[in-house]
Amino acid sequence: MVPEDNNFYSWVADHSADDTSKLRLKYAGRQADIDYADAILQIDCRRKYARKLSATLVRTDRFYFPDSLSGEQSTSDLLAVFHASLVSDAGVVADLTAGLGIDCMHLASKAREVIAVERQEKLAEALRHNAAALGIDNIKVVCDDCRDYISTVADGSFSHVFIDPARRDDQGRRVYALSQCTPDIVAMLPELRRVAATVIIKMSPMLDISAVLAELPGTSTIISLGTTTECKELIAVITSVAESSPTVEAVTIRNDGSESRFAFTRAEEAEAPTPVYATPATGDYIYDPWPALMKAGAPKLICSRYGLRKPAPNTMVFFSGELHDDFPGTVYQVAEVITYESKNIKRLKKTYPLISVATRNFDISADALRAKLGVKEGGDLRLLAISDDHHRKFMLILRRI
User: Fold this and answer.
1) Residue 311 resides in a domain
2) What's this model's pTM, rounded to 2 decimal places?
3) Distance in angstroms (rounded) separating the CA atoms of residues 200 and 350
């Protein structure tokens, strides 16, 4: 049961800065109106997910976590805001895998009504409580398996359906194929399209985009979504009108909440001119696409749109002699170009004892190269080891712009 007593949440607030290990020892087995173990869990969860759910937790001191796993598996506020933007000015939206409810509580700000379907009673109960605590009155929580629920729904009941299938099997092992997720989205897609004009599917970033498009007919847009350091997920937006060439969009959410977008079709990438291949020189600018763009995979268009070159077809490094401030990625300047040969390997440790090491299309990993060079990870400089179009190997010493 979700605690509704004000004393419970007052105790959590009063002990929010305390050592929870000491609290567990102090209150172990103590009988009172307050479930101390549950209250201490709330303190731990608020600390653990303070950054991830900052926008939600700041709005109420009565937010309740039924367990720590629900917070771990929940969408962050940052990504949930983006998800909500996909259903702007919507009618009735169904979130079929509601979980802790972060997504559907953000969706509620854009929709007339949100039907939140969650098969675990403790999560459904927590969602009802948390929505009320946040003053959200347009969420209806249904405790049911979404497959059973959908079978009872009339055609066209929703403007949008949002679903985030579980990526672990019954034994807790991670799965990656869409058909292995719970529920099986591929098998369920006809039913989803029957009840909604637009279906939005959140997926693992490990999936291959070509495979996703083959398995999800009717996809109009597939989004590679991430931050400046990580690709977080793939999102398929499926409409009633099938697209012959779906849009692929790389969206990066910066730390300040602003977005960088790079959109294209696979036909545009196929028809783009072949890049010029060359070796970077001292003074050149290296353009390292953010992870969402790397995942989207448009190397020829990246070169074409920004006037960049590459060292080799399979070396995902972009460079030019000109600085482009609007590039969707991190920009470095080449301080030194070092050929990968024995005499340079031996001296590099003396010159750059502390340096961040990365490799692209190199025959050994970054960890193996770091060990071979004898350098320590860190510092302000970056060593990027690459191969060029003539199979020559270089180590680029980079300074971040």
Assistant:
1) yes
2) 0.92
3) 53
